[in-house]
């Protein structure tokens, strides 16, 4: 029996090595938690085009929006761990959702493997032009004078825009209403149309509306100003110095847990190289994003630090969904 166990383990190890040596030998699918045409979708397709050339196989994009990224993450978590089903996701599904929802159909550490963080970009808090405030201080005062009348939109329940809005509403006693969307594109459409009062979204998506004056930026998330909006302060500079306002978003690549190390390494090397190409940098710049392309170990360390901050934010905001 002992001999059989050893033989089985040896065969399994050999199988994993052979899979890594032969990988990839057919099309790879990138599962994306956004609708086609959005910023994440466009950038993922640019990344996929370059990685496809480097890896010698087609890369297909499968859009699975909704449920704050859980649908896409669950799809990959349950996929065969062979490197042919890969998740390209915003940080929300990994760092936020597990603390917000009582029932999440996957466990990030148990069901998914860390590959690399791909890129990050500044998020900005913006208000519609009907709001008279020009600064965060003025906005908070105005919102306090209009309790129960102000609403804000986000990419979905559990996303950073939702959590920060909930925390701001609760900590400042503003009684603001949250409106959740399945993706950024419909959120931007309703913000520009005046259906929501304010929102936190990517600088690249909102920049055209800043130029036209239809939407006004008040503050950016993160520890430094956006290169695209050098005159717009950070939340901390605007007076919101609580640690709950520190998290910011990024986009990462994950694979099913159990994917052979050699396959994960191939994906990591391909993604880290592709995200630094001139064409990719031009695409990222168009959306006011910056490449990261770190190691899987650095990715995991950043994930741990981010989840610790998000957990505090969720508890402080009371944004728990049973």
From TrEMBL:
> Protein name, please?
Extra-cytoplasmic solute receptor
Q: Where is the secretion signal located? A: 1-20
Q: Which CDD domains match?
A: PBP2_Bug_TTT
Family, according to the entry, reads as follows:
Belongs to the UPF0065 (bug) family.
Is Transcription given among the entry's keywords?
A: no
Q: What are the UniProt keywords, alphabetically? A: Signal
Q: Which domain of life is it from?
A: Bacteria
Pfam families found in the cross-reference section: TctC (PF03401)
């Amino acid at each position: 029996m002992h001999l059989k166990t050893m033989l089985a383990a040896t065969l399994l190890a050999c199988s994993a090595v052979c899979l890594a040596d032969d990988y990839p030998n057919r099309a790879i699918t990138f599962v994306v938690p956004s609708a086609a045409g959005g910023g994440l979708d466009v950038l993922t397709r640019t990344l996929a085009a370059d990685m496809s050339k480097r890896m010698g196989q087609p890369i297909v994009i499968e859009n699975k929006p909704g449920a704050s990224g859980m649908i896409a993450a669950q799809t990959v978590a349950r996929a065969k761990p062979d490197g042919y089903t890969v998740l390209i996701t915003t940080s929300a599904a990994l760092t936020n959702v597990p603390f917000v929802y009582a029932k999440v159909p996957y466990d990030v550490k148990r069901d998914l493997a860390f590959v690399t963080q791909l890129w990050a970009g500044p998020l900005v808090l913006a208000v519609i032009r009907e709001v008279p405030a020009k600064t965060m201080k003025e906005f908070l005062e105005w919102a306090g004078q209009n309790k129960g009348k102000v609403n804000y939109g986000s990419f979905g329940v559990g996303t950073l825009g939702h959590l920060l809005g909930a925390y701001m509403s609760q900590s400042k006693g503003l009684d603001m209403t949250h409106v959740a969307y399945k993706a950024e594109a419909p959120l931007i459409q309703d913000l520009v149309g005046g259906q929501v009062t304010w929102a936190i979204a990517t600088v690249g998506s909102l920049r055209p509306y800043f130029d036209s004056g239809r939407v006004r930026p008040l503050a950016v998330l993160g520890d430094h100003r956006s290169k695209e909006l050098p005159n717009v302060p950070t939340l901390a500079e605007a007076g919101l110095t609580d640690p709950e306002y520190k998290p910011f978003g990024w986009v990462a690549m994950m694979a099913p847990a159990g994917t052979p190390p050699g396959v994960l390494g191939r994906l990591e090397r391909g993604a880290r190289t592709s995200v630094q190409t001139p064409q990719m940098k031009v695409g990222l710049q168009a959306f006011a994003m910056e490449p990261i392309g770190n190691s899987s170990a650095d990715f995991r360390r950043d994930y741990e630090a981010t989840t610790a901050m998000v957990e505090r934010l969720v508890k402080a905001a009371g944004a728990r969904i049973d």
